[in-house]
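Handoff note, outgoing to incoming analyst
You'll be picking up this chain. Sequence as last confirmed:
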Amino acid sequence: MSAMECKLCGLAAPNSAIEADGNRFCCLGCKTVYTLFGPEVLGQASLRPEPVTQGQIADGKEAFLRIDGMHCSSCEILIERLGEEVEGVLAATSSYATSAAKIIYDPDVIKEEDLPGAFSIAGYRARLTSDSIPDYDDRMPLLRLLVGVSLAGLVMMLYLAFFYPSHLGIVDEKDLEPISWLAFQIAPWVMWFMTTILILYVAVPIFRGAWIGLQVQVLNMDNLLSIAILSAYGYSTFQLINGSLDIYFDVTATLIAVVTVGRYVERNAKADATLELTNILEKWAPMARIRWAGGYKFQAIEDLEPGEHVIIWEGESIPVDGSIIYGTGAVDESLMTGEPFPITREEGDEVLGGTVLVEGQLEIKVGPVVESQMDTLARILWNVQSAANGAHTVADRLARVFVPLILILAGLVTFGSLMSGATNSTAVLAGLATLIVSCPCTFGLAIPLTNAIGVSTALRNGIIISSADAFEKLRQIDIVTIDKTGTLSTGDMNVIDSVGSDEMIAIAAAVERLSPHPIAKAIARLNHEKVAMGLKVHPGKGAVATLDDRNAAVGSRDLFANLDWDIPDELLKQATEKAPSDGVVSYVGWDGVVQGYIVTRDSNRTHWKNVIDQLRQHCRVVLLTGAEHPGEYEQKVDQVFSGIPPEGKAAVIRQLRKEGSVVMIGDGSNDAPSLAEADLGIAFGAPTTLAAEAADVIIPGDRLEQIFTAFNLIETIRRRVRQNLVWALMYNAIAIPMAVTGVLNPLFAALAMSSSSLLVVWNSSRSMPGVDDA
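Most recent structure output, in case you need it:
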């Protein structure tokens, strides 16, 4: 009789009965889940989640570009539309928050080095993240800022000297008659000249942003600003030519100056917020140095073959995963493992792509699969900082709808003022004030800047935010589920006992040498005589392989029940009585008969008890483990599910979510389904690529208490996003009626608009108690 499928998780169930209510299960763990939750846990959608990917929208190779000159979210649309017109570019996505773009292209049609030229149009300057930044990039905004502030200051000084005193009744115009030629003939034209320079030079980025908005048929805040600036300037120039002194060059100059200052501050805040991501992407040049014709040449990582030799010099990133065949060096692995100090690596050691060689020189051999941890990390980080979802999408849509409404409102205010008998000057001022004060700058900054700062702060604390909506996912924590091995324990397994012959140990070591599981690694160290092949892994139970023309198996009782192999009663009794409660018994057998067993045990992670105690003060703590005996951990948590396979863990998470929000903390690939299923998944320790991609947060290293830093960070960023959005709504609710009713003139409207944006920048950038000090 062939094995049936487990009713819960879909894995093969043994012929020997593990049943409940007529349902067959693959192990006692799945049966326990059914017993606790009842029939409702069965018959749901497949418990096996779809493979977690980065959501690529097209096939092809990836390249990251740094885009200088992005001004608002409309730039994202234009860049993506530019990509549609470039032959060989399959897809382009960009981020205003990070001034970056991800390009997916066909290398047979266009080369990576040609991409910057293809996207350096419409006023943008594109460069590969591996290229150095030209010196002038940072100087030009500063020069534009200095010119804008200086000329606007001179314009305001002339107004303070000759116009404001008489307008406010402080000085009678007759008192100015001796210098009337200077005050009313020369000064207005000087103000016109300086304002014209502001228009032609300093305000160019604003006008370019407006033109971009028109090109993509999306009105943006630059359209509002441009209309306000050109209206005030055009009206004042017309009045000046016709001999009238009813001029408002001060409004034009001030508006240009405050916007320029605000954007300069915003630009620096964005640069600081994305500094860690920028460093990662710019250090990550996906090229490898290989030997060639007696010298060296650089080759793209995707063109490397398994087994090729790569040379890394001091100060360079290690481009791919591999093993050292020559040299000794100090390697900075902090971003991958959380280890704060460089680690000495020598011949025979494995190294990870993306780590940095801080001292020495290495030659490594590329592994059987050409891959790099850094490649995955760079993609994850770009996606999370560049994604627009949740509150971000709402704010962006609100800003886009807001602009045309304000244009209509400003027109109605101007027309209404004229119809009510107001002078042309008063009507124009009311319309201008409405335009200026309503610019949705705060909406454009409220979400992306705050999220970018959150991701950057997390990186400085050794935490990687790997999901774009991690800050929006969790309002409160009701249940925390924790994997045992590799999370509460170190996962560093050691053999503490064995029962059986030397041949049994040799066979067990040969089988386990093919498996990456921590228990398998411990057993594999016992012997190196035999070689096995054809490994078949039974997740959560063990493994089967072939050697010496026979099938050999190493694993738990469930594995042998599934295989229908007998475990002698005497051996089973001995293992049950002598093995410690926190030990893991791995039975070893071949040709259908169990011949012995090996006991392994791992060590507890430092401070794990304090972490559990602190968690239990705020929420319920549930232990999930594939081990049959959870040991002393069972006494510290509220609930235990033991002997649960990966798919069964996902089922438990799904059921627990009906009782409240669930956080899952795990480390290995077998935790990926449950990490993806939880409201918030945290991959801890040395998380595998699959676990890292399934999780929302990655915490490398061995400091389990870092989960509290992650919780504080997520809560702080979520709260500040809400504060920024509330402020943006309050500002517009107060300022727009004041402008419409004429209480707020254009000059103060410009100051209010700029101050509103700077307040958002300040709120997003201020220190985070409990995070920055962690």
